[in-house]
């Protein structure tokens, strides 16, 4: 038996932040997310703005919304709140990039993937943020790093199946 520390941290605080800051976004949730996030995504699903399901269901939902936007051929900004493990971000980004690269339309379609986490799952570094902003390639100057302080737990290199807390 195991317990998922990430799912414990993916609760009320995160749901409140999503309600306040991402009320117009598409919501996705894996079957295993805590009740609050599950309920929020089910509500979005009833409005046609979300999906609750497996990682494949989530990926299919996102790619279908991108295809629909490309077909409309109108400038658009699609925002998806990802309620599942961080390891899924890579496959989503790869699929979305492939779709956008193959577009034949002249529309400017932007896709934003939001991975909300509890403030308890963020570790601060000793450096202060630069007032000049952060370039996409310069991650070393981040003053807030997602993840646990001791370097164990979730990473982009594995998901729940490789989590030491699930063993």
TrEMBL record:
Pathway assignment: Cofactor biosynthesis; NAD(+) biosynthesis; quinolinate from iminoaspartate: step 1/1
Superkingdom of source: Eukaryota
GO molecular function: 4 iron, 4 sulfur cluster binding; metal ion binding; quinolinate synthetase A activity
Coiled coil: none
Alphabetic keyword roster: 4Fe-4S, Iron, Iron-sulfur, Metal-binding, Pyridine nucleotide biosynthesis, Transferase
Swiss-Prot/TrEMBL cofactor(s): [4Fe-4S] cluster
GO process terms (BP): 'de novo' NAD+ biosynthetic process from L-aspartate
Enzyme nomenclature, EC number: 2.5.1.72
Gene3D superfamilies in alphabetical order: NadA-like
Entry GO terms, CC: chloroplast
InterPro entries per the UniProt record, alphabetical: NadA, NadA_sf
Protein name per the record: quinolinate synthase
């Amino acid at each position: 038996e195991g317990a998922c520390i990430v799912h414990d941290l993916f609760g009320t605080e995160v749901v409140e932040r999503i309600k306040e800051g991402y009320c117009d976004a598409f919501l996705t949730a894996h079957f295993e997310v805590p009740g609050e996030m599950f309920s929020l995504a089910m509500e979005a699903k009833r409005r046609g703005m979300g999906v609750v399901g497996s990682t494949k269901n989530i990926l299919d939902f996102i790619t279908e919304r991108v295809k629909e936007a490309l077909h409309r051929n109108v400038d658009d900004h699609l925002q998806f709140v990802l309620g599942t493990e961080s390891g899924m971000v890579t496959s989503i980004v790869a699929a979305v990039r492939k779709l956008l690269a193959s577009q034949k339309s002249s529309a400017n379609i932007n896709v934003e993937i939001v991975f909300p986490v509890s403030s308890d799952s963020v570790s601060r570094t000793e450096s202060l943020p630069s007032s000049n902003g952060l370039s996409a390639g310069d991650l070393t100057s981040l003053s807030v790093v997602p993840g646990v302080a001791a370097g164990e737990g979730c990473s982009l290199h594995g998901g729940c199946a490789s989590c030491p807390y699930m063993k």
